[in-house]
Design a protein that fits this description.
Number of domains of chain A: 3
Order of helices and strands of chain B: HHHHHHHHHH
Strand content of chain A: 15-25%
Number of helices of chain A: 19
Number of strands of chain B: 0
Structural class of chain B: mainly alpha
Largest sheet of chain B: none
Radius of gyration of chain B: 28 Å
CATH class of the largest domain in chain A: Mainly Beta
Distance between the termini of chain B: 49 Å
Distance between the termini of chain A: 76 Å
Helix content of chain B: over 70%
Largest sheet of chain A: 6 strands, antiparallel
Oligomer: heterodimer
Strand content of chain B: under 5%
Largest interface: A-B, 37 and 28 residues
Radius of gyration of chain A: 26 Å
Number of strands of chain A: 24
Shape of chain A: globular
Chain lengths: 575, 274
């Protein structure tokens, strides 16, 4: 009788390999190359062998001289390892926006503002041919497969004008941005005639780090040195710490990533299937009633604060980057060691969250003694613990838990400029839509329709997210954060209509449109395919006075709100 | 006090102060100041012109000319003020003469249409929201057609599946007309729901003569009737919200035109302004 085959849970992400073209021969080559040749395969569990991680979670990319590998300000979920050739990181002063595929920011002057009265185009989505010409200092070519690669035309000039640093064979870069979902801090391009890089998606990097001490220590050290210090200094309770104390806090801080980076895809699938019960899939960071092990600081992503209610949980708040959880309980217990309280709320991940945990012992020994008494939170009383909501008690009460549930389930807290419409004041006059069209060459950039709860509707307009998943994977850098206020904008010149942003956006706020010329004829490429561009709300970044939609509403029914700040929304509801 | 209440108090207080001042000055200067009606007339005309500028402002949303909300607040309270100025200009008398009567009537119509607009702008959105089923006005005809197609298909399906024409006959007799166009618009405005209740009662009455399979189909008709009624409700209320300005604005421009003729006539027959 044949032995029963060994079975194991195949990681879900391996349903779709990062690069289906990776062969066993490629993996063999990787396993003979440092740092993988120095890793001990036996340290990896049977369900996650190093070989399979390399095959499923990596991709070998080849770049020719001048080709951009990552751009400063882009979001990405992968890190790169240099396998051969030289690549350079641009340090100072940094490449100009046009070289990164972006548009130089320019507010309209008074003449251009007035000219909109007669110069707006009659044809929808029309552009002059001259407007589609990009910076001549960059070019684009199709690389492996259909991948479009943008390259710098004059690398020696860039090297002479910019301070750069060489990244050599065997070095890793982009790991901090990949693991903590932060914007890339520098631009990297290939310097040698040809460079071969291994791109590792974040899940693979996370798993390799989990089972290989050397890589974990390397990444951990870089992370603590470069990112953690500035992150902690931004939080008020750590501002008064001495450098030595902060160094000790940094050394003893724990880092964790929860949930799924690809939450947008999962969210879209659930939204399309109108599925419910998403909370079952939300990993728990800390549970109500447990001993507080430490203060949880959200570094990126989002988490839900909830409290037991009946047989379920009631959402009381959601936390975003820079907000923390567990501080009130730890501060309470530190001042009242005789009657310690457990955690009052549960903290769950919504989508994904990268968190920093400062252990209770560190808080008690180093942090709390340095916080002035007046800055400490009030002691938790039994009455408060029954009805309280963590940070924004008043705001959460004003909004109500059902509305919070709606915002949370739909992930609208991601928006920094979410278009919120008060349906009890909105006369459906569409002045907002007309104003938007007037400010964008007669092309409205949003739909006055969308999910609603009670008297609140969230319109289909770009929310300019904290976590802009639309920006992941843009091959030309066309979608980027604007220089004025971090708005997410698209440069029509460098947009190649690949639909990466359109497919990534979980809120369906991006539209693909066929471009016309001034006579109204559709523009086509040499194969007679229509020229397609992604369009969306740009928050009237070129106009003076802010978003036209908001200024055009006669009844104060429409506002662009940062739903990450719950108090702002609560005040607007009660206006 | 929330910001809307504060806004109302501020606007109303300004209106009271300015109106009181206008009435007091008119009373004080009446008979002593030469050609007082010229002064009140020009002030009234200037305020009306300012009110009229709101429409061009709406056409230029990209210019930083204060928010539309601020303009509307000015429009409401300055519009009220024109009532006082108009009465003062007329020296609180009923107009005499055909031209003056037309001018006064136009003014009253503009004022009344403005009040109507303000009322519907404040009242109808709440009703639409309470009813639910938010829908874009422009999409209503397409949705109505889709509902009609579904109802037609259901009627045909009932013949094929249950081998009986009872439901199809009922549909032809009672429901087809209901699905064919927008219905009961005036009654929806008055929040009267008796027509749809009558239809639903007839559906309920028919229920007792049907077998179980037919009853399931009839229930689907009841759902469609409710959906269509909701659509008609939205159509009726949104139609009013969208069309009242088509009365208010032409009346306003007519008033402006007559006012300018009035000014020309006054100057032509009074020997010129002093």
């Amino acid at each position: 009788m044949p032995a029963a085959p060994t079975t194991f849970d195949r990681p879900q992400r391996w349903d779709a390999a990062f690069d289906p073209k990776m062969t066993d021969a490629d993996v063999d080559r990787l396993l003979d190359t440092p740092p993988f040749s120095n890793m001990r395969a036996e340290n990896f569990p049977a369900r996650l062998p190093l070989r399979d991680i390399l095959k499923q979670d990596t991709s070998i990319r080849r770049y020719r001289q001048g080709e951009l590998i990552v751009r400063q300000g882009d979001y990405g979920n992968s890190a790169f390892l240099v396998m051969s050739g030289n690549v350079r990181v641009v340090l100072r002063p940094g490449l100009p926006p046009s070289l990164l595929g972006r548009r130089e920011p320019a507010r309209k002057n008074v003449f251009r503002l007035l000219a909109q009265m007669w110069a707006n185009r009659k044809e929808p989505e029309s552009l002059q041919a001259s407007e589609l010409k990009g910076d001549k200092r960059i070019g684009a070519r199709v690389g492996d497969g259909d991948e479009v690669k943008v390259f710098l035309q004059d690398v020696p000039r860039v090297l002479s004008e910019q301070k750069t640093d060489l990244i050599q064979r065997g070095e890793l870069f982009g790991e901090i941005a990949a693991l903590s979902r932060m914007a890339r801090t520098a631009t990297v391009f290939a310097e040698s005639e040809e460079a071969e890089l291994l791109e590792i998606r974040w899940q693979g990097l996370r798993d390799i780090m989990r089972y290989d001490d050397a890589l974990r220590k390397q990444v951990d050290t870089i992370y603590r040195e470069r990112a953690l210090r500035s992150a902690l200094r931004q939080v008020p309770i750590f501002r008064r710490l001495s450098d030595e104390a902060l160094q000790e806090v940094i050394a003893r801080t724990e880092l964790s990533t929860y949930g799924d980076y690809d939450w947008s895809g999962e969210y879209k699938r659930l939204a399309q299937a109108a599925a419910t019960g998403q909370r079952k899939q939300e990993p728990t960071i800390a549970e109500e009633g447990d001993y507080p092990n430490g203060v949880v600081l959200i570094r990126s992503g989002f988490a839900r604060v909830s409290q037991k209610f009946g047989h379920g949980h009631r959402t009381l708040n959601y936390l975003g980057a820079g907000q923390f959880y567990g501080f009130e309980e730890i501060a309470h217990n530190w001042r009242n060691p005789a009657s310690p309280l457990p955690l009052q709320y549960t903290l769950r991940v919504i989508g994904y969250a990268h968190v920093i945990v400062i252990p209770t012992t560190v808080m008690e020994k180093l942090v709390l003694p340095a916080v002035p008494k007046g800055d400490l939170p009030p002691l938790i009383t039994p009455v408060e613990s029954e009805i309280a909501t963590a940070p924004s008690k008043d705001a959460a009460e004003k909004i109500g838990s059902e509305m919070l549930e709606f915002l949370t389930e739909s992930r609208f807290f991601n928006g920094t400029a979410t278009m919120v419409i008060d349906l009890e004041r909105c006369t459906r006059c569409d002045d907002c839509v007309r104003a938007c069209a007037a400010a964008h060459d007669n092309n409205p950039r949003f739909l006055r329709h969308g999910p609603s709860h009670g008297r609140i509707m969230i319109a289909n307009a770009c929310m300019h997210c904290v976590d802009p998943v639309c920006m992941i994977g843009c091959p030309t850098g066309a979608i980027h954060r604007g220089a004025f206020g971090g708005e997410v904008v698209i440069n029509p010149v460098t947009c190649i209509g690949c639909k990466a942003c359109f497919n990534n956006c979980p809120y369906e706020a991006i539209r693909m449109v066929e471009i016309r010329d001034e006579s109204g004829a559709f523009l086509t490429d040499k194969e007679l395919n229509p020229i397609i561009k992604a369009t969306k709300c740009d928050l009237c970044v070129e106009q003076v006075g802010g978003p036209s939609c908001q200024r055009a509403c006669p009844h104060g029914a429409l506002a662009r709100l940062n739903l990450n700040e719950i108090d702002v929304f609560a005040n607007w509801l009660e206006r | 006090m929330n910001s809307f209440v504060k806004q109302r108090w501020l606007g109303f207080s300004l209106f009271v102060v300015l109106s009181g001042t206008a009435i007091w000055l008119q009373a004080r200067w009446f008979g002593t100041v030469l050609r007082l009606s010229y002064l009140t007339g020009w002030v009234l005309f200037a305020v009306i012109l300012c009110l009229t500028l709101y429409n061009p402002r709406k056409k230029l949303p990209f210019l930083p000319l204060l928010s539309s909300e601020a303009w509307l607040q000015f429009h409401i309270y300055a519009g009220l003020l024109t009532g006082v100025l108009f009465a003062a200009h007329m020296s609180y008398r009923i107009p005499s003469g055909l031209f003056q009567t037309i001018l006064a009537c136009l003014y009253v119509l503009v004022m009344l249409s403005g009040f109507f607009g303000l009322f519907v702008s404040r009242a109808l959105p709440k009703r639409l929201t309470a009813r639910g089923g938010e829908v874009l006005f422009e999409r209503i005809p397409a949705i109505r057609h889709a509902l009609q197609d579904r109802a037609e298909a259901l009627a045909l399906k009932s013949i094929a599946e249950v081998k009986s024409a009872t439901i199809a006959d009922f549909y032809s007799r009672e429901l087809r007309g209901f699905f064919e166009g927008q219905r009961n618009l005036g009654l929806h405005l008055l929040e009267v729901s008796s027509p749809v209740n009558r239809l639903l009662n007839r559906i309920k009455d028919l229920n007792r003569y049907l077998n179980q399979e037919e009853q399931v189909m009839l229930e689907q008709f009841a759902v469609l009737v409710r959906q269509k009624d909701g659509l008609d409700y939205h159509y009726a209320l949104q139609l009013v919200l969208k069309t009242w300005l088509f009365v208010h604005i032409p009346l306003t421009y007519s008033l402006l035109l007559f006012t300018m003729v009035h000014i020309v006539l006054v100057f032509a027959f009074s020997g010129g302004a002093q």
